[in-house]
Amino acid sequence: MATEEINHTQGPPPSQPPSLPDYTQMILSAIEALNEKDGSNKSAISKYIESTHPDLPAAHSTLLSHHLNKMKQTGQIVMLKNNYLKPDPNAPPKRGRGRPPKPKDPLSPGTVVGPPRPRGRPPKDPLAPPRPKISAGTGRPRGRPPKMAKTTAAAVPPPPGVKRGRGRPPKV
Questions:
Q1: 33: Cβ contacts below 8 Å, ≥ 6 apart
Q2: Residue 20 and residue 23: Cα distance in Å, rounded?
Q3: At residue 40, what are phi and psi to the nearest 5 degrees?
Q4: Secondary element (H or E) of residue 8
């Protein structure tokens, strides 16, 4: 008698009754049974599942939303204008965003592929001797040349009797 009591109390209690099918199966059967042209919305799917399976868990709406989103992302169902429907088997597969990757050329069987080069600038070798600086070869120093000093001969005042004209004086 004592062993029978131990066997009944061991293990965690099941979270869902074993008679309840998987949510993905319930959702797919609900979409098929409702058979609406534009697809079935979440509330219609929920009502159908509640009517066919009365022993649902308390978190049914949360579980339904989670499984609908998961099935939508895996491609088991398609969402169109807030309605869920089964994907058309004849439709082409949906492409992701952005430019598709280039096709890779197959390598010949004898080719050995080494590890890829690391990104960025390679580190300096601390044991290498320092390189001598290479000059540009033009004989001129780098950068902007220094300003030339002003000469005082350029600022000769005009003779007193000559009147200057208006505007910029002509080049000499």
A1: 48
A2: 9
A3: -115, 140
A4: helix 2-9
Q: How large is the angle between the packed helices 60-74 and 42-52, nearest 10 degrees?
A: 120
Is pTM beyond 0.85 here? no
Name the one residue in this structure whose structure tokens are 């807030």.
82
Q: Which of 99-108, 110-119, 154-163 has the lowest mean pLDDT?
A: 154-163
Q: What percent of the chain has pLDDT over 90?
A: 20
Q: What is the separation of C-alpha 57 from the centre of its chain, rounded to a whole number of angstroms?
A: 36
| DSSP letter (8 states) at residue 154 | G
Q: How far apart are CA 80 and CA 91, in angstroms?
A: 14
What's the confidence (pLDDT) of residue 12?
46
Tokens at residue 80, please?
Answer: 């169109």
> How far is the C-alpha of 90 from the C-alpha of 116, rounded, in Å?
41
* pLDDT over threshold 80, residue 1: no
**H-helix or E-strand spanning residue 62:** helix 60-74
- Could you tell me how many residues make up the chain? 172
- What single letter denotes the amino acid at residue 15? S
Three-class secondary structure of residue 30 per DSSP: helix
| Token digits of residue 149 | 């000093």
Q: How far apart are CA 137 and CA 141, in angstroms?
A: 10
End-to-end Cα separation, the chain, in angstroms: 127
The radius of gyration of the chain's CA atoms, rounded to the nearest angstrom, is 42
Residue with tokens 């080719």: 111
